[in-house]
Amino acid sequence: MKKILIAATVILGLGSFAAYAQDQPISKTKKERKMENRQKAIRLLKAIETGDSGPVGYINPDKYIQHNLGAADGLAGFGALMKTLPPNSAKVNTIRAFQDGDFVFTHTEYDFFGPKIGFDIFRFEGGKIVEHWDNLQTTAKPNPSGHTMIDGATEIKDLDKTEANKALVRDFVESILVQGKMEKLAGYFDGDNYIQHNPNIPDKLSGLGATLEALAKQGIFLKYDKIHKVLGEGNFVLVVSEGHFGKEYNAFYDLFRVENGKIAEHWDVIEPIPAKEEWKNNNGKF
Fold first, then answer.
1. Which superkingdom is the protein from (predicted)?
2. Which of 17, 130, 132, 151 suits a disulfide with 53, CB 3.0-4.6 Å?
3. pLDDT tens for residues 225-241?
4. Which domain holds residue 116?
C-alpha cells in the first residue's frame, strides 16, 4: 500500500485539488505554449510540496491519461490516496526539465515516505496536460565514483543538434542494450571518458564493462527488449524502455548527455513493472 501511495503522490495525484481544475488562459501562439509548458510542469510538481491548487489547472480535467499503474485514471482516482499523505511532509526538487515538442520531461528528487528519484513525462495539448508517465526509484547512496543519482551537468546546449543526438542515443540503446552488439560499444564514447550516475557503476567506459562482466558471472544480466520513447532537447536525451535486469521485468528511464557527438554522461531510474492484476488503470506503463 505504501508503494502505491508513493507512486500516486509523484504522479500528480493532487486529488484534493481536483475540484480546482477549470479552464485556464491559454497562450495564443504555439511558440508561447511551448515556452510555457516546461514551467507548468515544474510548478505542478512543486505543488505536491506546497499544496498550491493553482497548477492543477494546467491539467485537462476531461482528458488526463495516467500511466502510473498504482493510480486510477484521470483526476478522480487520486483524492483518497492524497488524503493519506501527512500535511507538509512532501519535498519536491526538480533538477532538470526539458521540452520536446508537446512533451516535457523532468528529473526530480522527491521525499515522501522516504527519498525517491523520478523521471516524469507530460504530454500537452493546447497548453493543457493530457497524459502522464513516470518512473521512480528509492534514492541510493553515491556510486563508486562518488556521483549521486541526481547531480552532474544541467546546462542545455546544442539545440541545433537535438535530432542528431536523439538518433545517436537511440542507436546506442537499440544496438547495445536491445540487440547486444557489444563490439560497437566503444564507438559511442570518447575513449574511456564517461560520467556515470547509476548507483552501482563507476565512471568510465571501462567501469561499465567491468560491472556488466561481474554481474554476468553472478548470472545477472541486463537486457532491454523494446524502446518506447526517445525525447530530447539539445545535448540531453531521455530513452524510455522495457526489459529485464536479472529476473525482474522493469521500466528503464535513461537520461544521456551528449558532447561532441559522443555519450558523455548518464543517469537512470529503474522500476519493476507490477503484474497486470495489480494495475489501477488499463493504460499500461508505456
1. Bacteria
2. 17
3. 999 999 999 999 999 99
4. 2-139
